[in-house]
């Protein structure tokens, strides 16, 4: 039976019994100078915790401390656990490993994209996976996507009305979106509008995705039901969103590290009211998190002149108020979940100790492994199994135009002027063979890619928007060798030269995610980035390049399950070829 309330009646009686002295708290934080968001100042109190809940904050000490761990917090500063309101926890790392890593720097609540779960798992397995993650110290909430953000086959089955409504009804889902499908909505798609109304009926939020949107578009989307947007890239775009009533999530990510610039421009515009701001790292690549998660964004905010309390509020209580779960998260007060960060100094938001659901996950600078191990195969995330082979017959390139990279994620069409019939291309130019192949071997699409590399011989990646296989390279045999090695690994990113693997990142969870800890994955990703830069990759983030080659929420041309797709005209220019 699904538990209807967070705490059962028996637990609530126990919480009250701690105040009466018939039960002992499990943790007592004595003499704690903590951030009180009601009074907007630092105050001193004793904080009683029983299991996963704060049961009292005030001057009194408990009568019964027989089974209580007592921690003297004199000289420290305590703040609520940080909240990442817009996480994409499938960027080579997985939700379990990312949560464990994030918790070490004080981020103990994540609001996660459900895209991979919707595309790769059935509804039943996806919900089992979510419930399994609930047993870990880090709190995880989820979004409900309304579309695949690319052109996929059988989209109407994956994002059926019954599936979307089941997600919206799930107790761990707190919002609909992000609305990458807003052009369809603007053009009259009433099913998306219906889902938005259903989201509102469940008293849940809707996250926008409106890069470059005009004032009129922002106003229309607010009328349709959008509540927040994270795509402002200038101070003026922030102001425009605030004027239309939006909550604004200030982004600082691996492909858009905008927070310092945004804060400078916000201050130049004399915007000094911070309660309508949140912050997000927007699913950055692994290496970007080397300096932390939300703690790094708080640090940047303080350095850029945001008042210290407001900087902490943008990663705590502002988020909790927006999502209507302030009774559980975002502040240190009676009744809240015991997510508490202990700091050496309020100017340094990276905690020395972290409590998540009342459990120590970090203590005096040392990590404590409190997360439950995952049985990935039980959850439906197994190594990729492919019972088909790639051959030279698949390597036929006769397309009149190819895809040119403008930056890490924006791609435009270009006319192919070189001879592409050879087995190998010259390293004197930046054009490569480029393929997307169905992970089940049913179809393929072949074209050319300009701007990715000059000397990359063969690269295969099962990491992509849809989990289909990307191949890039100068040498057809090395592309096949990379594919074969990727298949042998059970999924991953593999580069080959002269038939031999030279760089690889195994992704044994559906070919999309690694089971390795984030710190290990960080080292693997850095080596891959260095290798690709040596081979001529000149942009910021190759992981996002691989992810977004298929993503039709970005201009201008994409390679998808349906074929080469013109985003602006919403048409398939060249369909996929059946194998």
Task: Give a written overview of the molecule.
- The longest helix is centred in the last third of the chain and has 17 residues, at 518-534.
- Helix 6 (161-169) runs parallel beside helix 8 (190-201) and helix 10 crosses helix 11 (259-268).
- The chain is 27% helix and 26% strand.
- 52% of the residues are buried.
- It has 17 helices and 29 strands.
- By secondary structure, the chain is α/β, with parallel strands linked by helices.
- Strands 1, 2, 3, 4, 5, 14, 15, 16 and 17 form a 9-stranded mixed β-sheet that branches. Strands 18, 19, 20, 21, 22, 23, 24, 25 and 29 form a 9-stranded mixed β-sheet that branches. A 5-stranded parallel β-sheet has the order 6-7-8-9-10.
- Belongs to the metallo-dependent hydrolases superfamily. Adenine deaminase family.
- It catalyses: adenine + H2O + H(+) = hypoxanthine + NH4(+).
- Residues 409-570 form the Adenine deaminase C-terminal domain.
- Its EC number is 3.5.4.2.
Shape: globular
Q: What fraction of the residues are assigned to beta strands by DSSP?
A: 25-35%
Q: What's the CATH architecture name of the largest domain? A: Alpha-Beta Barrel
**How many DSSP-defined strands?**
29
EC number: 3.5.4.2
Enzyme class: hydrolase
Pfam family, one: Amidohydro_1
Catalytic activity: adenine + H2O + H(+) = hypoxanthine + NH4(+)
Using brief descriptors, characterize the structure shown.
579 residues; alpha/beta; TIM Barrel; 2 domains; 9-stranded mixed sheet; 17 helices; 26% strand; globular
């Amino acid at each position: 039976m699904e538990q209807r309330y967070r705490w059962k009646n028996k637990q609530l009686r126990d919480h009250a019994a701690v105040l009466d002295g018939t039960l002992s708290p499990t943790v007592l934080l004595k003499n704690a100078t903590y951030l009180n968001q009601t009074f907007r100042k630092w105050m001193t109190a004793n904080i009683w915790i029983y299991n996963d809940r704060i049961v009292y904050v005030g001057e009194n000490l408990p009568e019964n401390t027989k089974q209580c761990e007592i921690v003297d917090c004199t000289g420290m500063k305590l703040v609520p656990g940080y909240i990442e309101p817009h996480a994409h926890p499938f960027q080579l790392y997985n939700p379990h490993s990312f949560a464990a890593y994030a918790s070490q720097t004080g981020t103990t609540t994540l609001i996660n994209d459900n895209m991979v779960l919707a595309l790769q798992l059935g509804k039943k397995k996806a919900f089992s996976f979510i419930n399994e993650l609930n047993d870990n110290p880090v709190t995880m909430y989820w979004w409900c996507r309304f579309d695949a953000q690319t052109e996929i086959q059988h989209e109407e089955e994956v994002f059926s009305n019954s599936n979307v409504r089941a997600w919206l009804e799930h107790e761990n889902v707190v919002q609909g979106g992000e609305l990458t499908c807003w052009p369809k909505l603007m053009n009259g798609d009433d099913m998306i509008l219906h889902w938005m109304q259903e989201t509102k009926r469940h008293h849940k939020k809707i996250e926008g995705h409106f890069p470059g949107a005009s004032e009129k578009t922002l106003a229309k989307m607010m009328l349709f039901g959008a509540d927040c947007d994270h795509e402002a890239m200038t101070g003026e775009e922030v102001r425009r969103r605030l004027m239309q009533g939006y909550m604004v999530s200030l982004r600082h990510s691996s492909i858009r590290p905008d927070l310092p610039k945004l804060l400078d421009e916000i201050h130049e515009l004399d915007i000094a009211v911070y309660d309508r701001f949140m912050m997000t790292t927007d699913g950055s690549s692994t290496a970007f998190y080397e300096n932390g998660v939300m703690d790094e964004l708080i640090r940047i905010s303080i350095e850029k002149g945001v008042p210290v309390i407001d900087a902490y509020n943008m990663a705590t209580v502002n988020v909790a108020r927006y999502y209507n779960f302030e009774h559980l998260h975002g502040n240190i007060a009676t009744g809240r979940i015991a997510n508490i960060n202990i700091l050496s100094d309020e100017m340094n938001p990276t905690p020395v100790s972290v409590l998540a659901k009342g459990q120590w996950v970090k203590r005096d600078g040392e990590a404590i492994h409190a997360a439950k191990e995952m049985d990935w195969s039980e959850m439906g995330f197994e190594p990729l199994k492919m019972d088909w082979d790639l051959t030279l017959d698949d390597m036929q390139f006769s397309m009149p135009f190819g895809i040119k990279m403008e930056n890490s994620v924006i791609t435009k069409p270009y006319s192919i002027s070189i001879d592409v019939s050879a087995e190998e291309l010259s390293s004197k130019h930046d054009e490569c063979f480029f393929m997307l192949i169905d992970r089940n071997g049913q179809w393929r699409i072949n074209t050319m890619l300009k701007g990715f590399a000059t000397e990359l011989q063969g690269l295969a990646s099962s990491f992509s928007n849809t989990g289909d296989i990307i191949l890039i390279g100068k040498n057809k045999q090395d592309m096949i060798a990379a594919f074969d090695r990727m298949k042998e690994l059970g999924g991953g990113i593999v580069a080959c030269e002269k038939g031999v693997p030279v760089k690889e990142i195994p992704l044994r969870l559906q070919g999309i995610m690694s089971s390795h800890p984030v710190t290990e994955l960080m080292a693997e990703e850095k080596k891959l980035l260095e290798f690709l830069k040596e081979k001529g990759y000149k942009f910021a983030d190759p992981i996002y390049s691989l992810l977004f080659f298929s993503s039709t929420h970005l201009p201008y041309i994409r390679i998808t399950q349906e074929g080469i797709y013109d985003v602006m005209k919403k048409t398939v220019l060249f369909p996929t070829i059946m194998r």
